[in-house]
Amino acid sequence: MSSLHTPNEIESILNRLSIYQGAQQTKCASELENVAQQSNLHRIVTPSLMTYILEFVSPSRADCVIKAACLVLANSCTTDDLTNCKYYLANGVSERCGSVLSERGASAACVFAVLDVVATLCTGCRDARDAFRPLIAPTLSAVKNHKTNLEIHFACVCALATQTLADPLSSLAVARNNGLQILVEIYKWSAKQREAQSRSQDDHRLALDTMKWAKQALMNVLRCPASDVDMFCAKIQWGTFGTVVAIDELKICAGMERKKILAAIQQGPSGSTTSS
């Protein structure tokens, strides 16, 4: 159980974080991470604190600082009280998250924390899906940059599943950026990790959660019944076919929305035709 913090105490940590370097900065970032564990954080983080915390979500900051700030941002939003969520959107948190994902080679822990903000805000606030739609391409790029990182895959599919929930435009953006193929690859790789004897029990659990969210994202993007995706994912898991055939198999799902999405896949990210 973390100790309770007041707004003044949090501001003091932020003040020190803004001037410290090296080991002192790392220690101070850990203090801010501890703040993120506070259960009633959304009632403590005032508008002025929000503005201050947002300053630390920037490509110019160290990974540990960005990670700590993002943990506070994500954990100070709840589905019961969306005031903070809407404040973050109004103050450009989506642009800040996008710049971190796009403009620097961030560490896996940092990318995970940024994507956690995306998923959290998209879950809590419908308006967030519009604001975070431009982050879909950077989100998918993060997977390519951390190909064998289970936590990044988990964060990616959580973000994509929440962005595409009831948002066809986000689904089209996923499709145009080869997201369907990437979701298939994430599911296949996670299924292998789920069966790997060398993985820890925590890894097995994370792999299972990743598979679940990847399946949800596939269902959202294709706008198809869960039964179709269940059958399709079972074939992936047992190695019945590879990615190209898997994408073809998904085309059996009916519906005009799916046809639009598949057409977008054929167009590719910049209008050039791609093979599926």
Name its key features.
globular; ARM-type_fold; ARM-like; 276 residues
Describe the structure.
The structure is a single chain. The chain has a domain at 178-268. The chain has 276 residues and is mainly alpha-helical. It has 17 helices and no strands. InterPro entries: ARM-like (IPR011989), ARM-type_fold (IPR016024).
At a glance:
The protein contains 17 helices and no strands. The longest helix has 22 residues, at about 200-220. It has about 280 residues and is mainly alpha-helical.
The N- and C-terminal alpha carbons lie at a distance of 50 Å
As residue ranges, the low-confidence spans are: 269-276
The shape is globular
Evaluate the radius of gyration: 19 Å
Total helices: the number is 17
Task: Compile the SSE list and pairings.
Blueprint: H1 7-19, H2 22-36, H3 41-44, H4 47-54, H5 63-75, H6 83-90, H7 93-103, H8 108-124, H9 126-132, H10 136-145, H11 150-164, H12 168-176, H13 179-195, H14 201-222, H15 226-237, H16 243-250, H17 256-267
Helix pairs in contact: 1-2, 2-5, 5-8, 7-8, 8-9, 8-11, 10-11, 11-14, 12-17, 13-14, 13-16, 14-15, 15-16
InterPro entries: ARM-like, ARM-type_fold
